[in-house]
């Protein structure tokens, strides 16, 4: 058994149908993704009409960025739990890597959700932070995810770190729907509107179009960054396995005096 097999990271199998990473053909999806994000940004600030009924109708357009960040953060949280369960079932190190990387991106998108939400709050309610129930819930969620990484960094044993991280990752993901949907919608005492993207009385068709294109674009960004980080981590693990000295043969040489 070679070192890469012992570490749990097999070498990637090249596909004849796939284009080399440096070829122009391989860059087409990235260019299309960049164009989609640019078009969404331009449409959000220049094409969409000002959101009437807000204190700052022009700034309220940020809702088409705020909501996609929240949706993609939830998707990343779901992927975290999926691979956490897969790791607990199989003990394959690669599943732990995929779960951890997705948790990192989930935290990033939850931070973006918080920042864009604060800007929206300024446009709608006059202050960046109102301690609305949903704002309090998102702070608690950020603390839960920050604790996930603090817990992993405090454990030196890799297998124990992966097991505990997987269990905590499942817990963190289960907190997402409760803190972002169930709890805020369980009380009328909230500033946040309800049914913004699911009802006819919510956003206009133009806003919904830009919003869902933004969801698609950010989801593709998440998938691309996630794949790149997972591949990089696999390379690091293979290099570390090659630097690990082979185990002793089991023979002991005993020197005897004459």
TrEMBL record:
Subcellular location(s) per record: Membrane
Entry annotated with the keyword Transmembrane helix: yes
Organism of derivation: Capsulimonas corticalis
GO biological process, one term: cytochrome complex assembly
InterPro entries: Cyt_c_assembly, Cyt_c_biogenesis_CcmC, Cyt_c_biogenesis_CcsA/CcmC
Topology in the lipid bilayer: Multi-pass membrane protein
Taxon lineage: Bacteria, Bacillati, Armatimonadota, Armatimonadia, Capsulimonadales
Name of this chain's protein: Heme exporter protein C
Coiled coil regions in record: none
GO MF entries: heme binding; heme transmembrane transporter activity
């Amino acid at each position: 058994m070679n070192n890469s097999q012992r570490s749990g990271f097999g070498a990637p199998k090249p596909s004849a149908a796939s284009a080399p990473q440096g070829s122009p053909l391989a860059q087409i999806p990235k260019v299309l993704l960049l164009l989609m994000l640019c078009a969404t940004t331009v449409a959000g600030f220049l094409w969409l009409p000002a959101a009437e009924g807000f204190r700052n109708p022009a700034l309220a357009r940020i809702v088409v960025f705020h909501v996609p960040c929240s949706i993609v953060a939830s998707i990343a949280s779901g992927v975290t739990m999926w691979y956490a369960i897969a790791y607990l079932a199989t003990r394959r190190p690669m599943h732990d890597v995929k779960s951890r990387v997705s948790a990192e991106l989930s935290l990033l998108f939850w931070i973006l959700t918080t920042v864009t939400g604060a800007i929206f709050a300024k446009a709608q309610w006059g202050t960046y932070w109102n301690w609305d129930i949903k704002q309090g819930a998102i702070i608690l969620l950020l603390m839960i995810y920050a604790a996930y990484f603090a817990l992993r960094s405090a454990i030196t044993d890799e297998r124990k770190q992966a097991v505990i991280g997987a269990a905590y990752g499942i817990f963190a993901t289960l907190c997402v729907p409760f803190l972002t949907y169930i709890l805020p919608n369980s009380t009328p005492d909230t500033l946040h509107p309800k049914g913004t993207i699911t009802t006819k009385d919510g956003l206009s068709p133009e806003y919904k179009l830009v919003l869902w294109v933004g969801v698609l674009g950010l989801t593709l960004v998440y998938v691309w960054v996630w794949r790149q980080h997972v591949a990089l981590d696999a390379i690091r693990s293979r290099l570390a396995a090659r630097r690990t000295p082979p185990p002793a043969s089991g023979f002991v040489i005993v020197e005897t005096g004459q």
